[in-house]
Structures are given as C-alpha cells and as structure tokens.
Amino acid sequence: MTGNYKISIVIPTMNEGETIGKVIDDLQYLNPKEIIVVDTNSTDKTKEIAEKKGGKVLDEPQRGYGRAYKTGIGEACGDVIVCMDGDGTYPAKAIGPLIDLLFINKVDFISCDRMTLRTTHTYTTLHLIGNKILNKTLSLLYGFRLYDSQSGMWIFRKEIYGKMKNLSDGMSYSQDIKIEALRNGKLIEIPIVYGVRITKPKLNTWEDGFHNLFELFVKYVNK
Predict the structure, then answer these.
(1) Which of 49, 55, 139, 195 could make a disulfide contact with 89, Cβ separation 3.0–4.6 Å?
(2) pLDDT, tens digit, for every residue of 43-64?
(3) Bridge partners of 80?
C-alpha cells in the first residue's frame, strides 16, 4: 500500500555520524520517498554521510528540536510525513506497516509508543516516571490519554499539519504535535520496540522534563 503515496521522512540531527548512515540505509525499502535530514551544526561527518546515502540535507543554524522539525516538514513534499530520530533507536522497518495502518484505520496521526514494550536497557526508571507524570498531566488538562506523550516517532497525513497551532521550537514540540493532532483529527498509538542508543543523548532529563511539564500548562492557557 505504501507505494501509492509519496513519503517524506524528516530526521533532525546533531552529531549523529555514527548512526545516520544505517538509519538511511534502513529506510531504502520505502518508495516513493524523500529523506530530509535537518542538521543543527554538527561538528562530525553527519551531513556528509547523510548526503552520500541519498538524504537531502538542510542546515538549521537555530538550535531547537521543534525548530528542526518545522524546517524539515516545511520542505517536505510527501503525502505522508514520517518523523524520527537519527540515532538508530526507532525501528525504520516498522514504518511501512505503520503507514498501511494509517490508511487502513482511517486515522490522521500515528504516535509510536515506547512504553508498552520497554525494557530496562532501553528506557530508565527515571525516564519512565517522568513520562508518566507528563502523560497524567496531559490527560488532566486536555482530556486525552496517551501512553507515551514524549515519543519522537510519528507518522501522519500532511494535511493535518496545516491545522496545527502554537508548536514549540524546543523539546516540547513532541507533546505539542500530539495535542494538536488530537484536537484536529484522529490519533492512535502503536507500540514499537525502542532500541538502545549508542551515542550521547541530547536530552537533559531534569531540565527538559520540568520544561515540558511547564509547557503543558502554557499551551493549555494559550489554547
């Protein structure tokens, strides 16, 4: 079914030279597709490797998780947008079946749930507790229940993105895009197997966790 739609895969990167090549290799089975790598000032070979593997590399000098996605999605030409990290933790081989589910189930947005199939090797107890607090807060404020509000892998129809408002430039973009998908269309969560990260994480557990919690209240007030 995936051959009936053009797919745009958007991957934000910063120093993912060890993993970005394999991530792009694992995406080659998807057709027709474009792979957009949005690089935020990598100092390693991330951009060169991505280009060599066939990725379209965009430079985004302004730091920010959400800023990188806004830049990449803004350039995407696909009917279906896939967003994922460049560190190899999300399963590229699951994308084809997930796109099929998007159309079979007639939904607008699929968010990948890392919690259901988690292990202690792939997701720490501290991250699990933090995620549960954010999930519960989101549920209380917005009336939506999510198992993994902080997941960074999503598949969605491009047209729903144009309806979204007030998306953050920072890490809270991940929860913002799900809230907007729930407000403007139909979202489902699908469990995936989250891999072990081999490169240094960009996430600051405490700082980003408290910031995302604060941003849930800010977004609620500004709705």
Answers:
(1) 195
(2) 999 999 999 999 999 999 998 9
(3) 7, 157
Ranges of beta strands (E only) in the chain are 7-13, 33-39, 56-59, 80-83, 109-113, 154-157, 187-191
**Phi, psi angles (nearest 5°) of residue 204:** -100, 105
Please tell me the distance from the alpha carbon of residue 3 to that of residue 35, in angstroms, as a whole number: 15
Count CA atoms within 13 Å of residue 201 on its CB side.
Answer: 12
DSSP, collapsed to helix, strand or coil, labels residue 31 as coil
Buried b / exposed e over 139-178, threshold 16 CB at 10 Å, is eeebeeebebbbbbbbbbbbebbeebeebbebbbbbbbbb
CATH label of the domain that carries residue 125: 3.90.550.10
**pLDDT tens digits along 182-201:** 999 999 999 999 987 666 66
**Distance in angstroms (rounded) separating the CA atoms of residues 151 and 87:** 14
Residue-wise over 79-104: b if at least 16 C-beta within 10 A, else e? ebbbbbbbbbbbbbebbbebbebbee
Spatial separation of the C-alpha atoms in residues 196 and 119, rounded to whole Å = 10
The domain tally of the chain equals 1
Enter the pTM of the model. Answer: 0.91
Range of the domain at 145: 2-221
